[in-house]
Amino acid sequence: MLQVLTAAAALVVGAVAGFLYRKTIAASNVHSMESQAQKTLLEAQQEAARSLKQGLDDAKEQAAGVRREAEEDVRARREEIARIERRITEAEEDIRSKNAGVLSRAAELDEREERLTYVREQLERATELHRAQLEKIAGMTSSEGREVLMAQVLDEAKRQAMSQVREIEQRAREEGEERARKIVTIAIQRVASEQTAESTVSVFALPSEDMKGRIIGREGRNIRAFEATTGVNIIIDDTPEAVVLSSFDPVRREAARMTLEKLVADGRIHPARIEELHERSMRDIEDRIRRAGEDAVAEVGIPDIHPDIIKLLGQLQYRTSYGQNVLRHLVESAHIASAIAAEIGLDATIAKRGAFLHDIGKAVTHEVEGSHAIIGAEIARRLGESPEVVHCIESHHGEVEQHSVDAVLAQIADGISGGRPGARRESLETYVKRLQRLEEICTAHPGVEKVFAMQAGREVRVMVLPQQVDDMQAQVIARDIAKQVEEELQYPGQIRITVVRESRAIEYAK
User: Fold this and answer.
1) Confidence band (pLDDT; 50, 70, 90) for 297?
2) Residue-level pLDDT at 170
3) What Rg do the C-alpha atoms of the chain give, in angstroms?
């Protein structure tokens, strides 16, 4: 606007200056030019006035625009300032609210700390009072109670350590499963000689090859149930249409063979059916044992034998002594004693009876401790045999001094029957005795229900009662058995001790 005013003023000044100049120039010709000069001056004044007015209007318009822009900018800045002020106010309110919450929380914490301090003091006083009452009731001081507690903590630490050892052994077992299988296979091949295999295994023929899969069952549950129930190791290999039953106990092996025969014939193979048919097979075995004893008595021709003795004689049908069948040995000894007595002109009744019964103690030697001669004599005495026959039994191994010819004849007949070429094998008897001792060691531990020696004595499976033995105790039993076996028995390679703890829940839907 100032520029417009300056321009207008300059125009006015220029116009006046032109007018004065023209007036001076035309002074000489005043009269001729006066009218025209006046006219020109008037036009110049009008033009100057129009220009000044236009300039003033433009200046006013520009000044109004600048003012409007300035007012808009001022209004915008005021609104921004107002928003900032509101934000600051809100922030101040939030801070004041948080400060109030912090102060309230601090007061609450102070109050809680005071309550905790009070409770702690009360608890300490109650603990002291309780300790004093416990010492008075228990009759022991704090140091004695501490010793009891330390003993409990030590026991718990042992259990935890055993749990960790168990986990470590489990990992090692998983990592070395393939190597362990190779070691066991090589040990069985080196130790299980031909005569041992002939006396400890039975080959069972199958109707078809697919029956092997049914015997194994899903994830091996059938074969595990079969081995756990019968105590016999079942070997399934590449032999076509045949499986092998392995056990040093011939009664147990025969019961397993009969069970497997019934399962194959029935076609329903599962754990419950295995247990059912095994119980039936055991009853059948008892019938066979009774018939075997009766057949032996009839063959020898000795009357008036107690039924319990007949049962013991039948059990000897499935037992061997140095590889010789014990029942056949008794029949043979009775015949030899009778023949010798007849040759020297003596009554063969006592000698024959004593020779026939001299080894009945072997039927229970794995169940009762002691010499089979003394055990057999006690059984015969309890079941009504005459003192002469009892003397023949107890003295046939020289443990009791002989004082009758009949006792001497019974001993001679025993020696002749067992001493003939090919009658006995020392290695098998030693092997069987070792397995029997192995089972006795396992049975002696509390909580053990059944014991089965398998894999030619390379594995022992110990079935424990789950109500009496927990998982940690089962681990301890396995370690104790392994340590006792290492101390008492001599054997090649290693023996695997497996303690099995199984719980079952059975209900009947009616």
Assistant:
1) confident
2) 74
3) 59
What tens digit of pLDDT does each residue of 29-53 get? 555 666 676 777 777 778 878 887 8
Is the Cβ–Cβ distance between 338 and 349 less than 8 Å? no
Domain, as residue range, for 313: 303-424
What is the predicted pLDDT for the residue at 26? Answer: 53
At residue 27, the 3 state secondary structure works out as: coil
Q: What is the largest CA-CA distance in the chain?
A: 213
**Could you report the per-residue pLDDT of 8-30, keeping only the tens digit for each?**
666 666 665 665 666 666 555 55
Q: What is residue 370's three-state secondary structure?
A: coil
* pLDDT value for 214: 82
Residue whose tokens read 């300790």 = 131
Q: Return the structure tokens found at 117.
A: 């301090």
**Closest alpha carbon to 47 in 18, 86, 88:** 18
Q: How many Å separate Cα 376 from the centre of its chain?
A: 46
Domain's final residue, options 424, 447, 480: 424
Partners of residue 461 on adjacent β-strands: 452, 498
Residue 420, helix vs strand vs coil = coil
Question: Does 347 share its domain with 283?
Answer: no
Considering the chain, what percentage of its residues have pLDDT values greater than 90? Answer: 1
Tell me the backbone φ, ψ of residue 214, rounded to 5 degrees.
Answer: -70, -35
Alpha carbon 83 to its chain centroid, in Å, reads: 70
Which helix (H) or strand (E) is 448 found in, with range? strand 448-454
State the DSSP string of 172-217: HHHHTHHHHHHHHHHHHHHHS-HHHHHHHEEEEE-SSTTHHHHHH-
Overall domain count for the chain: 3
Distance (Å, whole) CA 301 – CA 357: 13
507 three-class SS: coil
Question: What's residue 95's pLDDT?
Answer: 87
CA dist 247 and 257 (Å) reads: 11
Which letter does DSSP use for residue 218 in this model? G
Residue 197 has pLDDT above 50, yes or no: no
Q: Check: pTM over 0.85? Answer yes or no.
A: no
Residue 241 sits in the same domain as residue 315:
no
Kindly state whether residues 244 and 307 are assigned to the same domain. no
Length of the chain: 510
CATH number for the domain that contains residue 275:
3.30.1370
> What CATH number does the domain containing 363 carry?
1.10.3210.10
